[in-house]
Structure formats: structure tokens, C-alpha cells
Amino acid sequence: MKHFYLGVVLTLSSWMATAELTIEIQNFVENPTSIAIAPFGWEGTTTLPENIDAIVAADLERSGQFRAVPQSDMLAFPKAGDTIYYRNWRVLKAEYLLVGTISEAAGRYRVTYELYDVFGQRRLLAQPIDGSVSQLRDLAHYISDSVYETLTGIRGAFSTKIIYVEARKAGSGSNKEKFRLIYADADGAREQVIHESDAPIMSPAWSPDGKQVAYVSFETSRAAVFRQELSSGKREQLTNFKGLNGAPAWSPDGQKLAMVLSKDGNPEIYTLDLTTRRFTRITRHFAIDTEPNWTNDGKGIIFTSNRGGRPQIYQVTLASGRVERLTFEGDYNARPRVSPDGKHLVMVHRHNGIYHIATQELVSGDIRVLTETRLDESPSIAPNGAMLMYATRYNGKGILAAVSLDAGVKVRLPSKLGDAREPAWSPYLN
Amino acid sequence: MGIKTLKHGLGLVCVMAVLAGCSSAPEVEEPPVTTPEPEVTESGSGIDDPGFVSEPVPEPVVELDTVFYFEFDKAELLPEARAALTAHAERLKADSRSIRLEGHADERGTREYNMALGERRANAVRDFLVLQGVSSSFIETVSYGEEYPAVVGSYESAWEQNRRVELK
């Protein structure tokens, strides 16, 4: 049995009163898999603070690959396998059926869930899990992950987190903005402010172990790179150079940070060894070099440079210092990320004057524009490589949105209050 | 605010209108329609007090432009910035005052690239002042990228006003 115990508890942070992000699904895949998720049986007398089956249904729908059968259409609400009449589910054209029960003993909540193949009439999964009342959402995301992986063969990323920047007017009638760094579930729920400032916050980046975040803050009146431990809230200022101190990116082994510094007069890529505290200059060019990101093997850094006249993506091999241009299509390609399988670049790509998120297959060089929105930026890929989150503008506000890497699934996460921007998707945390 | 500044302001509006007219603007939202605030005038009655003025009237100080604009994805000074910057340079050499040059970009493109662009713009203004004889030790440059727009909005005239260096 899988037990949940308190994982990362954020201190020096506050819960926000209302959910900041909501979810609107624009596009499903062409033939989403139909899954019926019956209301989970609850043996207690109080009302549970979270609706587990609804969270699982929302998770699976947000992937774009599943459609949940409305509970109002269901002919029966079985709680376990022995009460399932498959014909009830076949008439609803449900391909799969998820049932479950929740019980409580001494403050621990135990959820037993079972997944059935309706047409094959067989059980695919049955597992009990337990956790505290504050972990009911974690239990739900865990169920979503296990159903998703069983049915698609791809590891689920519903238990992951995001960190993003929110800018909001300090008060009505005020021209001043408050900048907040926000930590939330991948669906935007349970957001917590992990840092707040009157000066801009930029470029959050997760450490590969998911325990720290690096970002840029202007709190000292100019840009500086900070890192912050998520569990304790402990912060450390890593740079204090004249000029640019920006775009931090952790090496895959977590030992180094790549960043941009202009201390020598020009924006160049450097690495900072977090143990020895030594900076190593990586690029040497009079053009703008910025937005570094490591290749998955840690042997190279991809970055944006306008050394060819316009911003394009380049890769430098750290051992040799050899620089190679990667993008050739279009006159603006910037802020690259490499997909987890190492086969694609994801970047901001200007097409007909409009800024979209695009992927480029590294071997063939084929570019594919994924988004139809405009002013799109800051793509961040889920650790399973299925979706990416990015920032765009919608109804005059900065919002987060998500799209699958094959462009089939599109989801918006509108922000209720401020401008949401610069999402950073966590690595796997469990 | 003297008449000179007003003229400068109008000149700028004209330049921007021409720019807006010439350029094609693909990612454009309509600018918001704003109703001007009603002007409040002092309507209380006051007594006419002639008084006795004995101090000499000081020579009016001409206010110089302190915001300099740039073209999209460019960090070269525009010719119209030169006159005001040359005048700034003369004053700075005279009073050895420290200044801060804050570089900004419009919202299009990526944030960190725009940080670099904002720095390039601030450096372009700094280099011009240094060429005019201002000591670089009196000049601090900082880039805010697209983080502090002068005008919020996704349309050409907002972007034009956001691609700037502010001399402070």
C-alpha cells in the first residue's frame, strides 16, 4: 500500500484565499478515450473537503486524451468490482470505469480504487492508498497518474508542481505592482506565495531534484540571481554584478547554474559551480547571448543569440567551446528548451509577425507551430514530455496556457486576479 | 513645464503618429478608449493682493527630454535624441551629477532577451554621453526589459512608448 506522509511543507509562505487559476479546455485529441469515474464511496459522516473523483476526472480531461462520462448520465454508482454491471457502461460507450471507496481511521484517509476495462470485462488496477486530510488532493493526483500510465503507457505528471510569477496592482487606484513567486499544483490549485517583492521577479527555474528554485529578483534595485530552498524558504543571493544577472538554469546534475552576465560589458553565458563558487565564461561574442538551457546529458548549453543579426538558437559544446547554430527557419527564435526525450527543441518562434510556441525536431530541423494565441512566451515542458505550459495574453491579461507537444490538446489557465507569467514545470517529485 | 517642453512633446507625438502610420502592426489590440478626467479648477474667490516683489525673476531652466525612444529590436540612438542628449552632456559636465539610465523594451519577444535589449539601449545612451565628454563613472545603467512598461497595452503606439531609455 502506498502511504503519503508530509512531503514538502512550505514555510514562510501564505495560502491564498481563493484559487487563482481556473482551467478551460479548448481542444481534446480527436478521439479521446471515454472513461467513467463513478462517485467514490465515502463511509464517513462529515463532508470531505476535497472531491477525489472530480479531481481525477479533471486531471484526466486536462490531458486532453480522456473524456469523463458525466456522472448524471450514469445508471448506477458501483463502489467496487463485485457490483459492476458492464452493460450499464457499454451503453454509455465508456471504455474504462474507475470506482473507489474512501474511509477514515484516526485521521488517516484510505482510498481504495479499481480500474476496469469495460469491453474486456477485466480489472486493470486495484490499489489502496492513504494520507492525511491535507493530502486528499495528492491522493487524487496519484490515482490520476496511475490511471494515465496504465492506459497510455506514459508516466503521469498530475502530481507535479508549477512555479510562476504573478504581477498584480498593489491596490485599487495604485500604479505600483506587487510581484509574487507562486508555487502550485500542476492544475493551478493550492497556490502558495513563496516570495513577494515590490520589484520585478523573473525567470524561475527548478533544481533537478525539485527542492530549490533559482530566479532573478530586482529587490536590490538591479537584477540579481537568487536561489531559494522550497521546504525552508531560505534564500541566498548568488550574484551581484553590474549589468545583467539573469536567466538561471540548473545543470542536470544540480551542481551548476548557467546564467547570463554582462559584467564584462556584453551579455555572455556563464556557469556558476555551486560548490566552488567559481564562474566560468562560456560564450565570447559581441552579440547578445542569453537564455541558456542545458542539454539533457549536461555536456552542452543551448542559448539565444543575435550574432547572425536576428535572435536564433545556438548550441555550445562545453568541452570544446564549439558553437553551432540550430535554428534557421524564421527571423525570431528564442528561449529554447530541450524535450525530455532529447529529440525536440521548444522555443518562442515568430511567424508572420506573431509570437508563438513552436517545436523543432532536432534531427530533421522541421519546425511546428503549436499555439494559435499571440505574444506567447516562456514554454516549460512537463517531465513526461506530453504537454508544455507557456504564458500568453488573453482578454488583456497575462495568463498561463498549456498545449500538448503534438498540438492536439489546448488548455487555458486564466488568472482571476493578476497577470500570470513565466510558468516553470517541476521535475517528477515522487 | 515650459513652452519648449510642450513643443518637444508635440513633436514626439507627430513622429509617433508617422511611425504608426507607416508600420504594419500584426499583433495589435485596439487601444483602450479613455475619457479624460474632468479638469478641476480653483473656483474659490481670492483677494487680489498686489504685494511687493523684490526678488529677481530667475532665468527659466529649459527642461530637456529625459526619455529616448528606439526602434523595434534595435538599440541604435535615433537622430532626434541627439540634440537633447548633447544638452544633457553639457549640464552633466558642469555639475558632475550622477545619473541612472534605465533601459526598457516592449512586451514582444522573450523576457530575458528583452533584458539584454534594454541594457543595449541604456549603453547606447551612455556611450553617446561619454563621447560628449561625460565621465562614465557618473553613469549607472540598468535594464528592466519589458517588466516596467510606460504604457500597458498590446498595440503599436504603446510598444513605441515602451521601447525607451529613461534618464534619471
Walkthrough of the structure:
- Chain B: Its main location: membrane.
- Chain B: It is a lipid-anchor.
- The complex is a heterodimer of chains A (430) and B (168).
- In chain A, strand 8 and strand 9 (122-131) form a beta hairpin.
- Chain A is globular and about 70 Å long.
- Chain A is mainly β.
- Chain A has two domains: 19-152, 3-Layer(aba) Sandwich (Rossmann fold); 161-425, TolB, C-terminal domain (Neuraminidase, 6 Propeller), CATH 2.120.10.30.
- Chain A is built from three helices and 33 strands.
- By secondary structure, chain B is α+β, with helices and mostly antiparallel strands.
- Chain B has a domain at 66-168: 2-Layer Sandwich (60s Ribosomal Protein L30, Chain: A).
- In chain B, 37% of the residues lie in helices and 12% in strands.
- Chain B has helices at 3-22, 82-95, 111-131, 156-162, and strands at 67-69, 99-104, 139-145, 164-167.
- The longest helix of chain B has 21 residues, at 111-131.
- Mean pLDDT of chain B is 78; it is low at 1-25 and 38-46.
- Classes of the chains: A mainly beta (430), B alpha+beta (168).
- At the A-B interface, loops of A face helix 3 and strand 3 of B.
